[in-house]
Amino acid sequence: MIPYGKQSISEEDILAVVETLRSDFLTCGPRVETFEQEFADFVGAKHAIAVCNATAALHLSMLVADIGSADRVITSPNTFLSSANCSAFVGATPDFCDIDSDTYTMDLESLKQAWSEDVRAVIPVAYAGQSADMKGIAEFARGKCAIVIEDASHGTGGGFFQDGKAWKQGGHPWADMTVFSFHPVKTLTTGEGGILVTDNDEYASKARLLRTHGMTRDSNAFQGLGLDSLSLGEQGPWYYEMLELGHNFRITDVQCALGSSQLKRLPHFIKRRQEIVALYNAAFADIDWIKTPGIRSAEDKGFISWHLYTLQIDFTAIGKTRSVVMVELRSKGIGTQVLYIPVYLQPYYRNSYGYNPGKCPNAEHFYSEALSLPLYPDLSDEDVKKIIAEVLELRH
Fold first, then answer.
1. Are 108 and 148 in contact (CB under 8 A)?
2. Domain 11-261 belongs to what topology?
3. Is the pLDDT of residue 230 over 80?
4. What does DSSP say about strands 119-123 and 72-75: parallel, antiparallel, or unpaired?
């Protein structure tokens, strides 16, 4: 069976984990800091704060930016639930603008049309690994006094070409914070895990605090309020203070050891994914009932870290429903997936915010035709040829 996504674990990865299991620290130890620094250096960011998953990283981005109940946050509907849920977690109103019909990422003109005075943040999603028009979005949003948080959960290690230069996601000037996911089907994995990167010192400091219950052992930050009568002024090695109401979003040393090992292989992962995408694109380019993913500009081609390969298929033209197609491909040993149902059509969003079909027509049309094919580094060329052949046979 060829799944639609799969992790790539090497002997070196296994040895890195085993070494950590034999060490003095399984969590809150040196491997967390090491991985954070390595990842920050790789993407070109000043700070990296590793957490238990990308949902937690998105939640932290809302907290450190002081987004709250009076605020609205606009994201793409073509994403996993977390990109919108993070704003609901802090009492803000999640809202959505439509996607570009070729790249399936946030459309700048739709963002402008969806804007209202209470928007405080925008979360463009790097769907399948490809960034939206980050410069255009940032210039517009910042002109309206809103911040930009790029959800690059799909795009670890990737980037885009802008103003004559290649920029990495997480290391460009058009996002105030960037979030990545390390789920097993993503480009780099820590098993579960995520990370928030930023150049903003205040955001980073607050994210580190809130990641661990809002608790600190840093004596320079102590306030001592209400504790003097209990401790008699003594602040021994046991002493800590909770400064804010935080969360337990910590990641383990075991996970970060795997992350550091995987980071060494990330360039290979990206290159192989690009090779597979090129094979798919060439095979499906002239098929009238298939639409291949577009890219924002020709210069971006060599910089995208592809997480998904999503076709649009005219199921009416081939006389089969998507469910029938998925079952047929599975019977041939090929797994596929549908990504994503527009978030605002989920019952929670319809019931809570009154969203209805028709809000984002491009996203709804894309969803009706979307089918993601297998894409992961360990796919062989023979696997890819088989997948292509079976997809082309769907019309017969």
1. no
2. Aspartate Aminotransferase; domain 2 (3.40.640)
3. no
4. parallel
